Amino acid sequence: MNIWMGSGNLGRDPELRATASGTSVCDFSIAVQGRKDDPPTWFRVTAWEKQAEACAEYLKKGSKVLVTGDIRTDEYEDKEGTKRQKWWVNARQVEFLDRKPREDEPQESYSPRESAADYNDLPF
């Protein structure tokens, strides 16, 4: 079984496109923070169909999400010859973790809600 779950913030606005058969596909990347002093790990996420359309409509750079899906890695060497990995997630589910502002709330005071479970603080 290959199931991955991670929460993070979008590093760029989502990009919506369609396959030749008309299926909606949305690509975005998220930064997942491990320990506070470690640099984030970046994951490329692909969402499909109605979920792709919702991601494109409601997410933007900086949005916080929880993604569940299948993961794969690709290894490569950078220009300096250092071995690196790319992480790809085929999303089964994308949860939007930013709270919606109330209609009477000014947009400037909008801030993401604190998640009840901060997956970065788990000891495993």
Task: Provide an overview of this structure.
The chain has 1 helix and 6 strands, in the order ββββαββ. The longest helix is centred in the middle third of the chain and has 10 residues, at 49-58. Strand 3 and strand 4 (41-48) form a beta hairpin. The radius of gyration is 16 Å and the shape is globular. The protein has 124 residues and is mostly beta strands. The model is unreliable at 107-124 (pLDDT under 50).
The helix count comes to: 1
Q: At the first level of CATH, what is the class?
A: Mainly Beta
Estimated helix fraction = under 10%
Topology, number of strands: 6
The third-level CATH topology is OB fold (Dihydrolipoamide Acetyltransferase, E2P)
Based on Cα principal axes, name the global outline: globular
Name of the CATH superfamily = Nucleic acid-binding proteins
Major pleated sheet: 5 strands, mixed, barrel
- Per CATH, which architecture? Beta Barrel
- SSE arrangement, N to C: EEEEHEE
**Chain-averaged pLDDT:** 85
Uncertain segments of ≥5 residues (pLDDT<50)? 107-124
Q: Determine Rg (CA atoms, Å).
A: 16 Å
Strand order of the largest sheet: 1-3-4-6-5
CA-CA gap between termini: 19 Å
How many domain units?
1
User: What fraction of the residues are assigned to beta strands by DSSP?
Assistant: over 45%
- Return the structural class: mainly beta
